[in-house]
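Give me the fold.
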Amino acid sequence: MKDAIESLLAKFDIQMTLDQLDYLHFLYENLHLEELSDKEQHYFIDYFFKSEPLRNMAAFALELADIIHEIRENIPAIEKAERLANGNEQGLYYERKWAELRRQKLKQQTMKSGNIFYVPFHDYKQEPGPMIICLEQTTGMAAYSELCKSMILPLFMNAHRESRDLYIVPYDQQIHVHYRFENGHLNLADFKSFIEYKAKGEAAILPVLQFVKALLQENQLGSDAEVIIFTEGTPIDGQYLVGKQAKTMLEEMKRKYHAEFSVIAMHEHNFNKQQFWFANKAFFADDAIQ
């Protein structure tokens, strides 16, 4: 891969330091940039060369590779009693969990006519659902924007490998824009917009959760959906998460779409466990910041 990248740099007459080459190699590996046309790769490399935020994000992501892997594969559960011994055990646990849910669904939908059973195997073999990232972009999160975006970069690789749509939904008190990367494939215009997106003000959590539900409903996504919420931990409407209406909505998302929620909060002391009762697991970025 490095030889291919260096050949491109020579072709485009662009000089980079060894560190920058390492960062670019990381992006090529995680974003599958080799799938782009030469023209698109030239555009991306030129953008990388000119964009200090993107270079910083790549450097941060490379430095935090082990922590980012933990975020993706072994996010600690909110309750210590729920934590499992290691990432492999946790992966097996969720694999068994979802397999059992699919078996139950298969049994419920199997129909009998005489001595013939009609079994909807296509539902049992259904592909994983989308990965939806809700990224708080507010005044309070401004200092952590590059950190959060650097953590998101490797998720493109996971989505691509698992053929899952990757949605990124920046939010403050409302949703101004969202990005969809089909099967984890890069769209340069949306990716650039995501990297440069900034917002200010405070965050409200209910509008983005309602938006996620609408995404799932609109696409009729009945398979396992993974929702990852990046937050400072103190949304202005957090108290409503424990209300009946919000609980009903979130429980429906878990039941109907098998949605599993993860929260990545910037500081553990800001995190309200009662308000984020619906989260299956949480990670506190203090570990990465320190």
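Residues 2-50 form one domain.
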